[in-house]
Design goal:
- There is one protein chain.
- The protein has one domain: Alpha/beta knot, CATH 3.40.1280.10.
- Helices cover 45% and strands 20% of the residues.
- Strands 2-1-4-3-5 form a five-stranded parallel beta sheet.
- It has 152 residues and is of the alpha/beta class.
- The protein contains five helices and five strands, in the order E-H-E-H-E-H-E-H-E-H.
- Strand 1, helix 1 and strand 2 form a beta-alpha-beta unit.
- The two termini are 27 Å apart.
């Protein structure tokens, strides 16, 4: 079974968000979705990028896990397009990561090595909310792939 990793800079301690997140994680059956938190360095992008790269290296057997960055200027999708993107990525890339950066974004080294940039939209969201929305959209993607009526 292929795996999508979500790597988040900073910790989510909000029980309500974590409870909703856990519910979606339990529903996903066709791929594994794992969430990893790495330490925030108070907006020091280079240190945060090092934390993310260490995590990526630890998750891959072949050097470093391929990844996409979530950014405000990344590619916008509707839910059907995002589902197709996820399905294609799982089929073509295999295991990969989606990275939610810290409050100031991502370090340059991550931009240099990313497969691309994705966006959850033009609005700005708190990181814990963006993380929950990403998990929900990954669940929604699975239901679209399976022809389940959740996406109505």
């Amino acid at each position: 079974m292929k795996t999508i990793h979500i790597i988040c800079v900073g910790k989510n301690k909000e029980k309500h968000y974590l409870s909703l997140e856990e519910d979606y994680l339990k529903r996903i059956k066709t791929f594994k979705l794992l969430i990893h938190e790495v330490r925030s360095h108070e907006e020091d992008l280079n240190k945060e990028a090092e934390e993310v790269q260490k995590k990526l290296s630890g998750l891959s057997k072949n050097n470093q896990l391929p990844f996409y960055l979530l950014t405000e200027r990344g590619k916008d999708f509707n839910s059907l397009q995002f589902s197709q993107f996820i399905e294609n990525s799982l089929n073509q890339v295999g295991d990969f990561a989606l990275i939610i950066g810290g409050a100031s974004g991502h370090g340059d080294k991550l931009y240099q090595n990313a497969l691309g940039e994705l966006s959850l939209g033009r609005l700005t969201f708190p990181h814990k909310m963006a993380r929950l929305m990403l998990v929900e959209q990954l669940y929604r993607s699975e239901t679209i792939m399976l022809g389940h009526p959740y996406n109505k």
